[in-house]
UniProtKB/TrEMBL annotation:
It comes from the Bacteria. This is Corrinoid adenosyltransferase. It comes from Paenibacillus lacisoli. Belongs to the Cob(I)alamin adenosyltransferase family. It catalyses: 2 cob(II)yrinate a,c diamide + reduced [electron-transfer flavoprotein] + 2 ATP = 2 adenosylcob(III)yrinate a,c-diamide + 2 triphosphate + oxidized [electron-transfer flavoprotein] + 3 H(+); 2 cob(II)alamin + reduced [electron-transfer flavoprotein] + 2 ATP = 2 adenosylcob(III)alamin + 2 triphosphate + oxidized [electron-transfer flavoprotein] + 3 H(+). Pathway: Cofactor biosynthesis; adenosylcobalamin biosynthesis; adenosylcobalamin from cob(II)yrinate a,c-diamide: step 2/7. Residues 3-167 form the Cobalamin adenosyltransferase-like domain. Keywords: ATP-binding, Cobalamin biosynthesis, Nucleotide-binding, Transferase. Its EC number is 2.5.1.17. InterPro entries: CblAdoTrfase-like, CblAdoTrfase-like_sf, PduO-typ. GO terms for molecular function: corrinoid adenosyltransferase activity.
Length: 188
């Protein structure tokens, strides 16, 4: 199979159920999810050693789920197939967030993205995930989508924040508080 098809040379691309412009909001949404998936792959490659076995497993599962998100958004018409992203995926993310948050110190102020190379990459994942979510919200304003994709992306950005902090904790690198931040988070 050849890598190039020449079918996109005129600025169109195939989606499930038709062809659209390469700058279509649907393509922007699932293209941003694809970009996020690449950064997740980078984070996996940086999570070496036994210290991060759980993170590698979680991030690998997330890569598959991001492919599912893109697939679900590639449908031009509802009802053309069963959606892959379900509410249970959001529930799983919440469980992982809770586990990682239990490992992290309490937050009082905003923190700067950074720390270890792994944590920094996970913060990049968080911000690209937020952009993917925004693109998905834009798409949903124009057409019906699988609402679980939007919920999944929203929770996934929270996951990346929590796990970036966990990566720093495990490497004994403190979060850097934003120096102009007042205390904005309350203890439970």
């Amino acid at each position: 199979m050849g890598i190039y098809t020449r079918t996109g040379d005129e600025g169109q691309t195939s989606v499930i159920g038709g062809r659209v412009s390469k700058d279509d909001i649907r393509v922007e949404a699932y293209g941003t999810i694809d970009e996020l998936n690449s950064f997740v792959g980078q984070a996996i490659s940086l999570s070496e050693g036994e210290l991060f076995n759980d993170l590698r497993e979680e991030l690998t599962q997330i890569q598959h789920e991001l492919f599912d998100c893109g697939s679900d958004l590639a449908f031009v018409k509802l009802g053309e197939g069963d959606y892959k992203v379900k509410a249970e995926r959001v529930d799983q993310l919440e469980q992982w967030i809770d586990l990682h948050q239990a490992e992290n110190p309490e937050l009082e102020r905003f923190i700067l993205p950074g720390g270890s190379l792994l944590a920094s990459t996970l913060h990049v994942c968080r911000t690209v995930c937020r952009r993917a979510e925004r693109r998905t919200v834009t798409l949903a304003a124009h057409t019906e989508i699988n609402p679980d994709v939007r919920r999944y992306l929203n929770r996934l950005s929270d996951y990346f924040f929590a796990v970036a902090r966990t990566a720093n904790v495990r490497q004994q690198i403190p979060d850097i508080e934003y120096i102009r931040s007042k205390k904005v988070f309350r203890s439970k």
